[in-house]
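stage 2 :: seqdesign
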């Protein structure tokens, strides 16, 4: 099956104007915005802070109407070169129907972030076929590893992945495909909606946090039962941070691991799979251009992004 080509957009140099928005959970306070502004400045960019990023409303950064207003304002403003989400949490699903996809198509610009931002990556990729970036959120203090990958992706159009330090071979082999995925819980929650990412011919890159092993199993099973994994080319799993192991009682000889679960799905589809790539709720993470073409070589635990 031919790989669908997505349009690649990235900031290209000093002076780029980057919108800082909070489309999901609440910030801790003004210090989060200050950290984000500092990150933007350190990259040679100019920050444009959304009007409502500190309008905390329960477990949201602001009411739905305010969060979508900030995001759409950034999409519609032709002087904005990129959109960097301040944090994840929860809330992107509540505004995804109201995104101005016409504006995104008219003036494509990179969207950056991870965790709950996976919903926005999936929706924009599905509706507009634009590459977006699974990256550290803007309020994050960037480690040298994370900064290097981020700059390769957003400034230089270089391979922002490569050898996955410490990754494990689950099932060997090599595959080429379009990168798709994000947070597993969010991706699985989009099944049956118009915003589910296109996984046909894709390399699925996924991560999660605070989930029991049986829930990881259940979410992957949901994707399989929905028929969404049938045409997958490969799986590259990141970190499952603070995830519980096998909680089954009784004989520990029957316990299962994340690797066991992943191997079952990779074997069933007949695709290469690795685990432990720098992706997830960790300091050292890749910036992954979702929608870009890449090659997964499980035997050498590498994910190589094609020149953008």
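stage 2 :: out
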């Amino acid at each position: 099956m031919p790989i669908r080509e997505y349009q690649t957009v990235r900031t290209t140099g000093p002076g780029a104007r980057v919108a800082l928005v909070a489309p999901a959970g609440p910030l801790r306070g003004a210090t989060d915005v200050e950290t984000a502004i500092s990150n933007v400045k350190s990259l040679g960019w100019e920050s444009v802070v959304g009007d409502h990023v500190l309008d905390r409303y329960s477990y949201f950064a602001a009411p739905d109407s305010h969060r979508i207003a900030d995001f759409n304002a950034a999409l519609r403003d032709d002087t904005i070169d990129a959109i960097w989400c301040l944090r994840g949490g929860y809330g992107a699903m509540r505004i995804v129907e109201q995104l101005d996809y016409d504006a995104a198509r008219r003036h494509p610009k990179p969207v950056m972030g991870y965790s709950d931002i996976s919903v926005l990556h999936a929706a924009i990729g599905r509706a507009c076929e634009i590459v977006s970036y699974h990256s550290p959120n803007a309020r994050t203090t960037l480690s040298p590893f994370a900064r290097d990958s981020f700059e390769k992706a957003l400034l230089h159009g270089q391979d922002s992945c490569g050898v996955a330090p410490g990754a494990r071979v689950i099932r060997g082999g090599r595959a080429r495909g379009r990168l798709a995925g994000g947070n597993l819980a969010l991706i699985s929650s989009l099944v049956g909606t118009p915003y589910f990412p296109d996984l046909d011919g894709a390399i699925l890159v996924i991560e999660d946090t605070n989930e029991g092993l049986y829930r990881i199993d259940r979410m992957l099973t949901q994707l399989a039962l929905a028929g969404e994994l049938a045409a997958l080319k490969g799986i590259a799993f990141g970190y499952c941070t603070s995830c519980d192991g096998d909680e089954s009682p009784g004989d520990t000889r029957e316990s299962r691991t994340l690797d066991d679960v992943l191997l079952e799905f990779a074997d069933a589809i007949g695709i290469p799979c690795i685990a432990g790539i720098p992706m997830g709720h960790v300091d050292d993470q890749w910036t992954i251009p979702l929608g870009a073409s890449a090659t997964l070589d499980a035997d050498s635990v590498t994910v190589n992004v094609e020149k953008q």
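stage 3 :: structure notes
- The CA atoms of residues 134 and 288 lie 5 Å apart.
- The chain has a mean pLDDT of 95.
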